[in-house]
């Protein structure tokens, strides 16, 4: 695999591929820096663009966009105290006070370097543990994959930013949407209502672009947005080597936290940066400095959120289970090019795995160079007027979605899912479980029906096989935990 890594790294350094990756990085940075936009939206917007690309170039661009979007939130978090993405919430606690004190350059540069360290740490873990996890996953049968999808759904439902009932209903809705069209086994028509357009099922491009990008456009249009008045008086001495070395253990701990949380489906950087920040504050000898411009807090938050990227990619490429919303959309990138993430990907497409590793490494290095070179220029992206930005984005989404299926029906689906996404989030139904339900629906149904056929209808095989029994037990335990937490919250509110 190491040889494939260097071979693919050389291929990525060609002018055309490098330009595509740079474009993805800049789009990710742009979306991450603007409050209200996100890495998820950036990847969803570029997903239709990859339709005409070679698979390796398409995945490389999407990975670069993902990394750029997660890191881009640092800019508005530092200058405006507004996290550009949920992954930068904890960054605002110390980066903004440090910038207000006249050291915006130091705050930005510290976050940029920490992001690169976190990304490279997670890449090492991804390369080291992915083969072992894949060898284990190859032993999975239909029963184990069925139980794994149930456990993943329960984990996302419980950890969603909503009560467990709304999370569960959102996941069920995603599963229901995935059943539209012909059944994967048997070929029966379901929920087509006599429409020829629905017989082919719901495409992942209109679903993802509508649910994330169009819903955000609706929100930006109908809800008042914050007036952006950044301070571009950037001064400061920059990052000192002694500070960087002194935060070595802090970055190592935060990186491991980000990787561990990133692996858990549906959580990602939005939680890892807060957990790492809390751990850094608890371990610090001067906790009173946190919240007043402590560089330890910036190192912790930014290392963790980028480390969660590699963590989220680990279950994606080894098990076919997305670690967060962005990796769920990345499955669309694989699907568009006829690829199926999972244990067989290592055996059937080793060059693609090497390309993912090389793209991750190159994107992280390029991102650091670009950010440090534009540390005084790139923040001005915050001044782009929304009245110019939103119409351009809508046109790009419509054109890209139409191109993905060459049908106007895809565009209507995209707009419909945009309304659905806005409405569900407005009433507290999280999108994460819905996306995971849609992505895992075909996997769950196919393996469930195969398992029943293999067992001649005997459902006890699910609990007699050790791995599937353990995963089902974990799913039940997670659901019980969510219900208990919901009851406790209601008791607290009642008192």
Summary, kept brief:
The chain has helices at 2-12, 15-33, 39-46, 55-79, 91-100, 104-138, 142-159, 164-178, 196-199, 204-222, 241-246, 248-263, 269-283, 295-319, 325-336, 343-348, 350-373, 386-405, 408-426, 431-454, 461-464, 466-494; strands spanning 181-182, 189-190. It has 495 residues and is an all-alpha fold.
* Count of the separate structural domains: 1
Q: Please write the string of helix (H) and strand (E) elements.
A: HHHHHHHHEEHHHHHHHHHHHHHH
What sort of overall outline do the alpha carbons produce when their principal axes are compared?
globular
Stretches with pLDDT under 50, minimum 5 residues: none
- Helix/strand structural class: mainly alpha
Strand order of the largest sheet: 1-2
Number of strand segments: 2
Mean pLDDT: 79
Instruction: Calculate the terminal CA-CA distance, rounded to whole Å.
Output: 58 Å
Helix content: over 70%
Reported for the largest beta sheet, the result is: 2 strands, antiparallel
Strand-residue proportion? under 5%
InterPro entries: DUF112_TM
Organism: Allomesorhizobium camelthorni
Domain DUF112: 18-436
Protein name: Tat pathway signal protein
């Amino acid at each position: 695999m190491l040889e494939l890594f260097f071979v693919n790294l050389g291929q990525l350094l060609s002018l055309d591929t490098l330009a595509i990756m740079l474009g993805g990085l800049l789009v990710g940075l742009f979306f991450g820096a603007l409050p209200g936009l996100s890495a998820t939206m950036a990847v969803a917007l570029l997903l239709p663009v990859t339709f005409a690309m070679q698979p390796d170039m398409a995945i490389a661009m999407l990975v670069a966009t993902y990394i750029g979007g997660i890191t881009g939130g640092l800019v508005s978090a530092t200058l405006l105290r507004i996290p550009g993405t949920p992954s930068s919430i904890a960054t605002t606690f110390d980066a903004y006070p440090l910038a207000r004190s006249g050291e915006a350059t130091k705050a930005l540069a510290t976050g940029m370097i920490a992001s690169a360290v976190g990304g490279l740490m997670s890449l090492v873990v991804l390369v080291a543990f992915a083969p072992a996890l894949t060898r284990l996953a190859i032993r999975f049968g239909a029963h184990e994959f069925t139980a794994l999808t149930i456990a993943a759904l329960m984990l996302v439902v419980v950890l969603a930013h909503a009560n467990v009932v709304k999370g569960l209903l959102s996941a069920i809705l995603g599963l229901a949407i995935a059943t539209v069209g012909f059944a994967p086994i048997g070929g029966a028509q379901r929920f087509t209502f006599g429409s020829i357009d629905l017989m082919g099922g719901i495409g992942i491009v209109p679903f993802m672009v509508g649910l994330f990008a169009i819903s955000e456009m609706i929100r930006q249009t109908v809800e008042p947005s914050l007036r952006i008045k950044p301070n571009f008086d950037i001064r400061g001495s920059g990052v000192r080597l002694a500070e960087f070395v002194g935060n070595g253990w802090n970055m190592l701990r935060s990186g491991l936290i980000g990787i561990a949380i990133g692996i858990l489906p549906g959580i990602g950087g939005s939680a890892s940066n807060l957990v790492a920040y809390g751990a850094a504050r608890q371990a610090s000898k001067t906790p009173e400095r946190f919240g007043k411009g402590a560089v330890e807090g910036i190192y912790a938050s930014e290392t963790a959120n980028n480390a969660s990227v590699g963590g989220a990619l680990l279950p994606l490429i080894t098990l076919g289970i997305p670690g967060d919303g962005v990796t769920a959309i990345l499955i669309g990138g694989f699907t568009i090019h006829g690829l199926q993430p999972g244990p067989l990907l290592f055996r059937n497409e080793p060059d693609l795995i090497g390309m993912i590793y090389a793209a991750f490494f190159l994107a992280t290095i390029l991102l650091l160079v670009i950010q440090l070179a534009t540390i005084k220029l790139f923040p001005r992206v915050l001044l782009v007027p929304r009245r110019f930005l939103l119409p351009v984005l809508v046109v790009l989404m419509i054109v890209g979605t139409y191109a993905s299926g060459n049908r106007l029906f895809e565009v209507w689906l995209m707009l419909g899912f945009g309304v659905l996404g806005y409405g569900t989030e407005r009433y507290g139904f999280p999108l994460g479980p819905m996306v995971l339900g849609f992505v895992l629906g075909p996997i769950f149904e196919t393996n469930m029906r195969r398992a029943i056929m293999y067992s001649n209808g005997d459902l006890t095989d699910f609990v007699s096989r050790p791995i599937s029994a353990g995963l089902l037990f974990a799913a039940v335990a997670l659901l019980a935990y969510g219900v208990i937490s919901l009851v406790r919250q209601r008791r607290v509110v009642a008192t």
